[in-house]
Design goal:
The chain has about 375 residues and is mainly alpha-helical. It folds into three domains: about 180 residues, no CATH class; about 55 residues, no CATH class; about 55 residues, no CATH class. The strands form three sheets. A three-stranded antiparallel sheet has the order 5-6-7, covered by helices on one side. A hairpin with a 2-residue loop joins β1 and β2. α2 runs parallel beside α5, α3 packs antiparallel against α5 and α4 packs across α7. The radius of gyration is 28 Å and the shape is elongated.
């Protein structure tokens, strides 16, 4: 015997339901299809970013840069990029334009197109880590769809048309540009994102028309060169930089003009890059940087309960040079440890040719000379 359960609802109750158009439907805050819901979601994100841009320019530059990279840029809209069909949405360009304007306000600089592309590169590739959402759209959606592919197949198993046309079109566009991938699609977003990053990096490198710019780009891509962008803003430890220091640090990383051409008090003609200040014999900051690094080394030794002496008198090598410090108790095998600090500028005229060819070349020359 077959039991059937029939359910009938009064017509008046059905008429009280609110009819929702498919283009206006959302799930957990993410619009499911292109249409008014997606337009409204992106308009809201652009309005929030525009408000943040105006406010970030009024606080410390380092604070604003960290907040923009970590909160108000791509992380703020990543759920839309991964869950909604945002690849060709016009608001992506608007969002990127707001990001570019924010960087210019925070760092008090004027970015060219190639410099803006460099800004949007990850920090390890010489950028500032403020990613362009238009470049992230396809990798974010494909990785999200690939990671949930088995669940989608189970849910849509009985559907006549269960494969997403959007997913297939995005995958085809990506394969046409960067080549096909294996049948088992990777689920990690960095896999899909990396070819686009390398393409942008190649565009930046192709636009570098001087040895100073090439050396600056290589130096920005070296290991640990971007650690200051992730530093905790602890004032007591000297980790919070003033606005001018942040402007100069960003300018050196991107190859921006830092000053108006003028004549230094030592008689040297300084160009717009302002690199002479790092090598000028009469610059007051040279000794200060050297002493700061020596004090830092000595404080580390103090933490290890090893007494040390900075600038010990009578301590000379066979070539007449004197190390910067000496431990007062034996460090190993009954011998004390000496240390010496050298600050090398890869953009100095004496090092820039080598630094434009290989990252870290200036440091290697200084180490071999020591």
């Amino acid at each position: 015997m077959e039991n059937k359960l029939s359910l009938s609802l009064p017509l008046s109750l059905l008429q009280s339901f609110t009819r929702a158009e498919i283009s206006s439907t959302t799930l957990l805050g993410a619009p499911l299809f292109p249409g008014p819901a997606l337009d409204s979601a992106w308009d809201k994100r652009c309005e929030d970013l525009a408000r943040a841009v105006d406010r970030l320019s009024t606080i410390n530059s380092q604070d604003g840069l960290i907040l923009l990279r970590s909160s108000f840029s791509a992380p703020k809209v990543l759920h839309l990029l991964r869950c909604s069909l945002s690849v060709s949405h016009p608001s992506l360009a608007t969002f990127d334009a707001l990001l570019r304007r924010s960087i210019q306000h925070i760092t008090n600089s004027d970015l060219s197109d190639s410099q803006w592309i460099q800004v949007s590169l990850p920090v390890r590739d010489g950028g500032l880590g403020v990613r362009r959402v238009s470049q992230l759209a396809i990798p974010a959606f494909i990785s999200s769809a690939a990671s949930t592919r088995s669940i989608q197949d189970d849910i849509l198993n009985d559907c006549i048309k269960s494969r997403s046309e959007f997913f297939l079109s995005y995958l085809s566009a990506r394969s046409a540009k960067f080549g096909d991938v294996q049948d088992t699609l990777p689920t990690k977003q960095p896999f899909w994102d990396r070819p686009g990053v390398l393409e942008d990096k190649a565009l930046v490198e192709a636009s570098l028309n001087s040895i100073h710019l090439r050396a600056s780009s290589l130096a920005a891509s070296t290991h640990n060169s971007g650690d200051w962008l992730f530093a905790m803003l602890v004032v007591s430890c000297g980790l919070r930089r003033d606005d001018e220091a942040v402007r100069v640090a960003v300018g050196l990383r991107l190859g921006l003009d830092l000053c108006v051409p003028h004549q230094c008090h030592c008689g040297f003609l300084v160009d717009a890059c302002g690199l002479h200040s790092f090598v000028c014999k009469r610059a007051p900051g040279r000794s200060a940087r050297h002493h700061t690094l020596n004090d830092f080394d000595r404080s580390l030794l103090c933490l290890s309960r090893s007494s040390s002496y900075k600038g010990a008198p009578g301590l000379f090598r066979t070539d007449g040079k004197r190390p910067d410090g000496l431990t007062l108790v034996p460090w190993q095998s009954g011998k004390s440890m000496c240390w010496d600090v050298t600050v090398i500028g890869p953009l100095a005229e004496s090092y820039v040719n080598g630094a434009a060819i290989e990252a870290g070349a200036a440091a290697e020359v200084a180490a071999s000379r020591k």
